[in-house]
Amino acid sequence: MPSPYVIEQPGPVYDTLGVAENGDDEEVPLIEIPDETTYPTDGELNLLTVSVVGRPGQTPNWLEVLAAWFDRTRSVIPVEAIFPPGISSEDRDAQNQAAMVDSQQDAIAAALVELDYDFPREVTVAGLLEGSPADGILEEGDVIVSFDGTDVNSITELQTAVREHGTDAPAQVDIIRDGAPLTVEVTPVDRDGTAVIGVGVRMVYEFPIDVELQLDDVGGPSAGMMFALGIVDKLTPGPMTGGEIFAGTGTIDSAGRVGPIGGIRQKLWGAERAGADWFLAPESNCDEVSGNVPDGVTVFAVKTLDEARTIVEDVADGDVTGSYPSCPA
């Protein structure tokens, strides 16, 4: 008898410094930088995935669910938490693929910022919520330059500026519309305790070099940090890892801030199965890490790409002093 649940379990592991099969069953580098000098790498910088067993109309039976409940490497999740009603499996897959594409662009941006490349980064209006504070004031295609006097170079910076301004007064928003500078006023409103202006935004970049990230059939934004580390390693003389095997997960924005992800328990066990000794986890996921760390895996808590890079380089040099932030095992 089918259950109302699906099962999350460790999925495939991909080394961002290595190769993977594309849709034509050809092995291609996960990261390719064709027109720049790149350097030999060593060790592994593994990104991790989660596989979902089941979908609406094809859920696991109760025996499979019971087995998963008693398996610490897997999680039992209500089917509607993964497949919300009204959204088809095809639409969900398309959304996840779009999130992966956006996260890859953010990873490239974060890596190039980390390496001091200079290039335009634009927070661009992609949509407006009808009746929201920004509706009728901002327009799709507007580039948000600053909010309340704070320069905006990433989505996170915009969200922070709106939140810190609050809802008591209008904020000046400097934008570029159709190539011309313009200043407008928007008054945020409260939504679930957070100040918002009701605008959807996306990042638009003009990269100074060509970086190609190639990974088919993987969706979502959680590979961002590991892709960024791989790019930094390839563009930096000397192997970053020193031959060590690292795994990790975390979203990333263009400023290099690492954000939380889902399925970290399964990713920890995926890392252990891949032979990783070191795991880089978003600091904001530490509460989910505790109690789920496999033996032999050391977990570092990171907030930024620069922190993650420093940890990898110091571990490679044998400088593991215990002074780095970590998630309790």
Automatic annotation (TrEMBL):
Top-level taxon in the UniProt lineage: Bacteria
Location of the PDZ domain: 123-179
Gene3D superfamilies xref list: 2.30.42.10, 3.30.230.10
GO molecular function: ATP binding; ATP-dependent peptidase activity; serine-type endopeptidase activity
GO BP terms, alphabetized: protein catabolic process; proteolysis
EC number: 3.4.21.53
Active site: 222, 267
Family: Belongs to the peptidase S16 family.
Protein name: endopeptidase La
